[in-house]
Amino acid sequence: MYLGLDLGTSSVKACVIDDAGDVAATASSPLSMSHPFSGASEQTCDDWWAAISAAIRSIDGHTRAMLRAIGLSGQMHGAVLLDAEKTPIRPAILWNDGRAEAECADMARLEPEIGHLSGAPPMPGFTAPKLLWLSRFEPRTHARIAHVLLPKDYVGFRLHGGLVTDPSDAAGTGWFDEGARCWSSRLCEISASDLAWLPEVRHGSDVAGTLMPEVARELGLPAGIPVATGAGDAAAGAVGIGAIHDGDGFISLGTSGQLFVTTNSYRPDPENCLHAYAHCLPKRWFQMAAMLNGARPLAWFSTLVGRTVEELLAEAEVAAPGPLFLPYLTGERTPHGDASIRAGFAFLDESTTQGSLMRSVVEAVAFTFVDAVDAFSATGTRPDALMAIGGGTRSDFLMQMIADATGCRLVRTRGAEVGPAFGAARLAQLSLREVTEEVLTTPPVDRAFRPNRASGLFHSERLAAFRALYPALKGIDRSRQ
C-alpha cells in the first residue's frame, strides 16, 4: 500500500493505492484561508499539519499499518518562511495572493529575459515576488529568513526532517532556471532572496527522507518508510493519469484551474502568459495555462447564498442563459496576467434567479478554459481531446459546459476527483524502484463528454460578450471605491 497526500487550498486529501495502482482508501480534511487585507491570502502551517494528521488518522489502522511509502503533492507557489531553528516565522503567503504586483514589475524591469529564464513572466502569486515584497513591507520578518519551502515540502519536512523540493514545485517559485533545471542566482538577486535559503532539488519519484519515529507514532504509521519528494499539484495530477509523454494533456478543476500539456523539451511562451515548467520526472517539461479561479467560484456562490452547490447546479442546468459573470475573484493569470481584476455579474434583471446566476458562474468557468485553449493555439497547440481531474469533475453539467465551449472532447477517468493525491501515491510507489514509469497508465474511463456543436455556436456569441466585460471592469480604479 502507498499513501499520497495532497495539501490543497480548501482541503487536504489522502489517497491509498495498492500494488496494482487501484484506490484502496481516501480521506480528506478541510482547510480555510485568511485574508488580512484586500488581495492577501494566507494559511498557517499549524492548520496544514492538523489537517494532514486528521486525514491520515481517518484511514483505518489496518491500512495504515500496511503502508510502504508516502508521496506528496500540494498547492504551488506558496512562501513558507522558516528561521534558523526551522520554525515558521509567519503564516504562509499563498498562490492566490496579489500583494506583490509592483514587485513583479520591478523584477521584469531588472531582468528583461525573466519570462524565458523562469518559464513565465513574474506574477504576484509566485514565491520570488513575495520575498521582495517582504523585504520592503516586513523587513524584520525578512531579516529572520533562513529557509524557504513550498507548502508540500513543509509537510515533507514535518515527516522526514529534510529540506527538499522537486523540479515542478521549484519551477513555480520564480527562482528556477527551467532550461538548466537548477536554482538561478540571478533570479534570487533581483528578488531580495538568498540562494542558500532554497531547498535541495530531487526528482519527484526520488526518496526525500524516511518517516521519523516520533511522527510515525503520532500518525499511526510504520516508522522508517520512505517519503518520496513528490510534485506540485499540477505535475502530480499528470502522474496520476499517466500524462507524462510529449503531447499528453488534461484539465484540472480544483480551487484553481489548469490546462496542462507535457512536452519533451523546454518551450517558454511568456507572451501568452503560459507557464513552461520542469516536470517532476527527469527530462520532461510541461506547458500550462493557469487560471486562479477553477471550480472555486461555484463554492463561493454557494456560500454567498447559503445553499449547497448540488442544489444550485440542479437549478442552473434547467435555467435559461441570462446574466454573465466574470469569475476573477482573486485576479487572473492566463491570459490576462492581472492580479487586480475582480469578479462581477452583469445583465441582471427582475427575472434573475439563483439558478440563472449559478448557470452564469458555470459558464464563466468554461469560458476561462476557452481562453486557455486559445492561448495554447497561439503556440501551435490545439488540443481536441483532454482528460480531466479534480473535484470539479464531479459535476457533469460543468464538464459538458467546458466541452461545449472549448470544442474539446473531455474524458473523466475513474477516481478523477482524487486528482493530485492519486499521483502522489504513484510517486510513492515509484520511489521504491520496484516498478518503472510504465505503471503510469491512464485509469479506466468513467465518462466522455463530447462537444455539442449547436451549443458551441450559441456560446460563441456569449463568449464575445464575456470577453468584452474584462476591459470594462479593468478600467475601474478599485482603490477609489
Topology:
Layout (H helix, E strand, L loop, with lengths): L1 E6 L3 E7 L5 E8 L11 E2 L1 H13 L3 H5 L3 E6 L5 E3 L9 E2 L7 H10 L3 H5 L8 H11 L1 H5 L3 E3 L1 H10 L3 E2 L1 H5 L4 E2 L4 E2 L1 H5 L10 E2 L5 E4 L2 H7 L6 E3 L2 E2 H8 L8 E5 L3 E7 L11 E4 L6 E7 L4 H10 L3 H10 L5 E3 L17 E3 L7 H24 L7 E5 L6 H11 L2 E5 L6 H12 L13 E5 L3 H22 L7
Helix pairs in contact: 1-7, 3-5, 11-16, 12-14, 13-14, 14-15
The gist of it:
The protein is α+β, with helices and mostly antiparallel strands and 481 residues long.
List keywords for this structure.
globular, 481 residues, alpha+beta, five-stranded mixed β-sheet, single chain, seven-stranded mixed β-sheet
The amount of beta strand, in percent, is: 15-25%
- Supply the number of helical segments: 17
Secondary-structure class: alpha+beta
Helical fraction: 25-40%
Order of the strands making up the biggest sheet: 18-19-17-16-22-23-24
Distance between the termini: 55 Å
* Main sheet specs: 7 strands, mixed
The average pLDDT score comes to 92
Please tally the β strands and state the result. Answer: 24
- Overall geometry: globular
Residue windows where pLDDT falls under 50 for at least 5 positions:
none
Using the CA coordinates, give the radius of gyration: 21 Å
